[in-house]
Amino acid sequence: MRAVEIREKDTKGSPESIDPSDKDKKPDKSQQLKRVFKEYGAVGVSFHVGMSLVSLGIFYLVVSSGMDMTAILYKLGFSEAVVQSKLAAGASTFVLAYGVHKLFAPVRISITLVSVPFIVQYCRKIGFFKPPSP
After folding, report:
1. Which residue intervals define the domain DUF1279 in the entry (predicted)?
2. Cβ–Cβ under 8 Å, residues 73 and 88
3. Is the dihedral of CA 55, 57, 61, 64 positive or negative?
4. Which has more pLDDT, 86 or 3?
5. 3-state SS assignment for residue 41
């Protein structure tokens, strides 16, 4: 039984068991973002969180400044009592802004993936960060 377990372990990690099509696959945005967070640490996380907060704020301002939320809520099937309440009006604005914010997640992730290496490189150039260890 022990020999079978060892043989199974050896075949799982062998080059023959690796799918050759996996080498050609490009990692998706979330995997790339995790790599940037691992490589650049707090700078990557701080930049992405800051950008997300700014994005949510901008979308909230856009939604709250010009969109007729009562018509949207009526179309979604909410009752008149819910639509007329102040709490629902404020919450629906935020929920809609959050939904739009989530739709633009690939854009935010792409901006983070492109910007963070340049930010870290610039900070290292001016002496704010230590150069990477070999």
Report:
1. 31-118
2. yes
3. positive
4. 86
5. coil
CB crowding 13-47: b at 16 or more within 10 Å, else e: eeeeeeeeeeeeeeeeeeeebeebbeebeebbeeb
In a domain, 1, yes or no: no
Q: What is the mean pLDDT of residues 73-85?
A: 69
- Does some domain include residue 14? no
d(CA 103, CA 107): 9
Domain with 91 in it: 28-125
Is the overall model pTM greater than 0.85, yes or no?
no
Question: Contact 97/59 with Cβ under 8 angstroms?
Answer: yes
- Burial of 61 from C-beta contacts in 10 A (0-12 / 13-18 / 19+): exposed
